[in-house]
Each structure stands twice: as structure tokens, then as C-alpha cells.
Amino acid sequence: MSPLRIGVAGLGTVGAATVQLIEENAQVLALRTGRRLQITAVSARDRDKDRGFPANRYRWYEDARALAADPEVDLVCELIGGSEGIALDLVRQALRAGKHVVTANKALLAHHGGMLARLAEEHGAVLAFEPAVAGGIPIVKALREGLAANRIRRITGILNGTSNYILTTMRETGRDFAAVLAEAQAKGYAEADPSFDVDGIDAAHKLSLLASLAYSCVPRFDAMQPEGIRAIKPVDIDFAGQLGLRIKLLGTARLTEAGLVLRMHPAMVPLDAPIAAVEGVFNGIAVEGDRVGTTMFEGRGAGAGPTASAVVADIVDIARGLRLPTFGVPAADLVERNLAPAEDLVGSYYLRLEVVDRPGVLADIAAVLRDHQVSIESLIQRGRDPEQPVTLVITTHEAAEGAMTRALAVIAGLSVVLEAPTMIRVERA
Ligand code: NDP
Ligand code: HSE
Fold first, then answer.
1. pTM confidence score
2. How far are the Cα atoms of 266, 328, 414 from residue 158, in angstroms, in the given order?
3. Which of these CATH numbers, 3.40.50.10490, 3.40.50.720, 3.30.2420.10, 3.30.70.20, describes 4-136+325-331?
4. Which pLDDT tens digit goes with each residue over 92-123?
5. Distance between Cα 295 and ligand 1 center (Å)
6. Cβ count within 10 A of residue 182
7. Cα(385) to centroid of ligand 1, in Å?
8. d(Cα 366, Cα 351) in Å, to the nearest integer?
């Protein structure tokens, strides 16, 4: 069979590792696909940069878009990044030219996934994105193929390694967010501009793609309101431990009668939940299907080797002749799902209040919660010094998020409450 000719656009962390993997594992890949995987062309900005392999072995393009027009490229790997600009241009042009595309770019698909999936089908091309979600974990394949028989009840995931590393290290060392972020940057885990990682945006991009696979819908990142981990304090991590809970940046997707629930925010999870054991730079995803029950996927969600492993897994599928729709159903059948209003969602909450220590304060706060139909589950009070603020930690039974938010606004306005209250959701399911 003729070789599959590959153009690699972007030769950074993922692109360089992809080229090396294809070269070094050429024999086993040829055996598994029945054809040779041949890199014919590459593109990056700086031709003179050391990539760890002789880049002059391949045709070099200054402009990545040229890969789309190269008659000796059957498949384009888009490993540049960014939701607009060169990555979008390249993927569009490659698909229009009938070339298959493998991309690690979750931002691109979270913003343009529906349009690009249609374009791929119109031109008889495959658009595949295993490396875009959770790096080396084959979660896209699992949802699209292995779990295809199930109605997916719920997806719960830790989808950003940088923020999980920061939360884990804060807990282990007692240091605050800023100090641990600086260390993560020094170690190269976090970017100089870490906002996509620590503000929940990168993880929300990924969750929106998993939801599209599970619920046959166009990615709805546009409607999400991700919250990140900047506001998490060591004191809350400590209290979580005392309550038998652990704080994670948690994504949740499920389909309800009120619409698609698609949330990314810090949450406290029980210490004995499998997701609580996903630590450091690792990612973890729990998928609950109506027939299979809960399946748990854990592994390296980023890095050169794991992400290249996922890029080449998609290439292998294409080389074998597998032609699956991007999000598991024909693009024309993808539906636009509205998000369920956050204020109607029911959950439990952890509240931390810094208050004046005097008789009646607790009663005032409990009265506000009562007036908003929020029921208290447990209460911890630490300290006893009328001159000093005292910390009050309350966990609640299930209540509508809108009611909780309104109650908190009233509590924040009480003269006995000395700092803005902290609220963290508790996910026990
Ligand atoms: P890098 O920043 O390491 O590499 C980006 C590459 O793109 C560089 O080689 C750069 O060229 C090249 N590039 C930038 N602009 C252009 C352009 N206009 N034309 C041609 N090439 C260009 O990024 P990563 O490898 O980390 O990430 C790539 C993609 O993979 C992103 O979408 C990212 O979100 C995704 N991803 C990354 C993971 C990771 O662990 N790093 C994990 C999962 C997904 P030059 O080298 O010359 O500057
Ligand atoms: N920056 C991401 C993370 C990896 O920290 O998980 C790329 O998706």
C-alpha cells in the first residue's frame, strides 16, 4: 500500500515529539497500519532552531498554510495552537483540499469545532483530536468508540495538569497560590501567561469537547463560565481535609431536562472518590454510562511523549482507513444544546466566613440561610478571642445555586462579617 504522507505544522513540544515518535517507531507503526507513515513536510517559524532531529530532512515551509496545498501531503498535523489565525487558516485550507487533519488544539475546536467537523465531511476528510483532550489518555476514543453503546450519565474530570499540580503542591506544602504558581513556572509546567491553565479556560475547552462526544452537540465553550483556582487559600485546603474532602479544579458534564450542564470550577470531592486520588500533573476522567457504570481514566494529560502518543494514535486510525465523524455522529446531526441555567442547579456548598466573635452572630447567619431555604449540614468554629475575628466554616445540604448566591450576598453585607465570604461547591456524587 502507498505510504501515508504527513505534513507537521508546529515543531514545538508536541510537534517535535511527534516527528521523533513517527521516525523512531516506524517499523511497529508500519506493521500496525500496513503502510509506511512518511513525513514529507514540516513548518515552524524559526528554521535554525535545534529541534532534536534533522529538520532539513523534510521539505520546510515558512508559511504553515502551504502544507495544505502540498500535493505530497495527505494528512496535516496542526500542532501550532491558538483558536484563530494561522491554526484556523491551516485547518480550514487542509480540509477544503480534502486532506485529513489531526490537531492537539482544544481552543480551536472549542470555538470552531462544529464548523470544522462539517467542513471535513463535505470534503471527505477526517478531523481527529485525541491529543487535544487529556494528552496521552485515550478519552476521545473511549467516548466515541468503547462507550458508544451507552447513554452517558455524567462526565467528571480533572483536565488541566498545571492547576492540579498547583493544588496538590499547595496542600502538601501549605504554601499559597502565588508561591506555588511561581515554582510551576520555574519548572516549566505553567506558561509565563498561565491564565488559560489557572483560570479554568484550558480545562473548559477540553470539557466542551468531551460533552460534544457524549451528547452529540456542537461544542458550547462560548456559553461556559469557567472559574479557576486563583482564589483558593491554604486555609480552605486545610478545612477540606478536616471535612474528609479535597479541592480539585473539576469539570462536570451531564444532560438534564433543563439543558446541558457544563461546569468548570473548584470543587471539594470526597477523599475516597477515585478523582480525589488524581494528583500532581496527572489528569483523570470518570465517565458514567447507563450500561457500563463508572469507568475511570487516569494518566499524563500533557507533555511531549504523552501528547505525541495521542497524535500518532489518530494518524494510525487514519492510516488503517478508519473514517469516523469528528464528534462521533455526522456533523449535520450535531445539535445546538442550551446550557441549563446555573442558578437552578442544585448542589452542596462549603462556606468560610471571618466574623466578629460575639453572641448572636451565628444566629444572624443561620437566619439568612434559613430565609433562602439553605439548610446547614455541619459547622466548625475556631478561635475564642473577642478582639480577633473568628473563622466559621459551614457546609450545607443541597440547595439551588441561585438561592445560595443570594444568601451569600446578604451574609457578605452583615456588619459582623469582616471579609468577603468564600464559597466552594461540594461534589459528593
Ligand atoms: P509550542 O509553543 O511548544 O510549539 C508551537 C510551535 O508552533 C512552534 O514550533 C512554533 O514555531 C510553531 N508556530 C508558531 N506560530 C507559527 C506559524 N505562524 N507558522 C508555523 N509555525 C508556527 O506549543 P506546544 O507544542 O506545547 O502545543 C502545540 C499544540 O498542542 C497547542 O494547541 C497546545 O494547546 C496543544 N497541546 C499541548 C500540550 C503540551 O503538553 N504542550 C498537551 C496537549 C495539547 P517555532 O518553534 O519556530 O517558534
Ligand atoms: N497546559 C495544559 C495542562 C496542557 O496543564 O494540562 C495542555 O493541554
1. 0.96
2. 10, 22, 36
3. 3.40.50.720
4. 999 999 999 999 999 999 999 999 999 999 99
5. 31
6. 13
7. 55
8. 12
